[in-house]
Amino acid sequence: MFSWLEKNPFFFAVAVFVVIAYAGVIEVLPSFADNARPVESKKPYTVLQLAGRHIYIQESCNACHSQLIRPFKSETDRYGMYSVSGEFAYDRPFLWGSKRTGPDLARVGNYKTPDWHENHMWDPTSVVPTSIMPAYKHMFSKNADIETAYAEAVTVKKVFSVPYDIEGSTKLGSWEEAQADVKAEAEAIVSQMKNEEVKAAFERGEIKEIVALIAYLQSLK
Fold this sequence. Notes:
By secondary structure, the chain is mostly helical.
């Protein structure tokens, strides 16, 4: 049998491919099945976090920042546990990125605070002197699009069965209830900020883009 294969290069190549493919499936599938489920601590994005995620995409933050910690010691030493697929169960689309002009943000919610993000987005060099990131001062004056974020949450709940209503998960009620939840979440962030215009706008019932973006960045853990 083996001598016949050795004399027929095409069938030998096919046999090698089949063996390697079979071994790969046996190795990969069990690991994928374990990691593809949402990790225990992962919850669907709140409406305010979704609004911030829209801003993150709109401003092309993923062009300079990845959200994927690779399984290499140099990465885990700096950023912590490597990423698993279950962390992105509610990401549509995922924002892994492929370039790091700036640091990876997969765990940024674990070590940066709202006031740090506020200062960084207003003047990046005030907190990172060597930063080449531009300032995003317009986020402090533009209102976040909460209605579109709520519409997305309702859509993924109905179409993709994102578990917004199971015990221990993020809740998604009516539009009026969602507005109240957004206000409460935003208030906790605004209370830690120093920008008086953002604070005054919140008192008027306005939620600025910077508040929504911070909510999203704080969810990345």
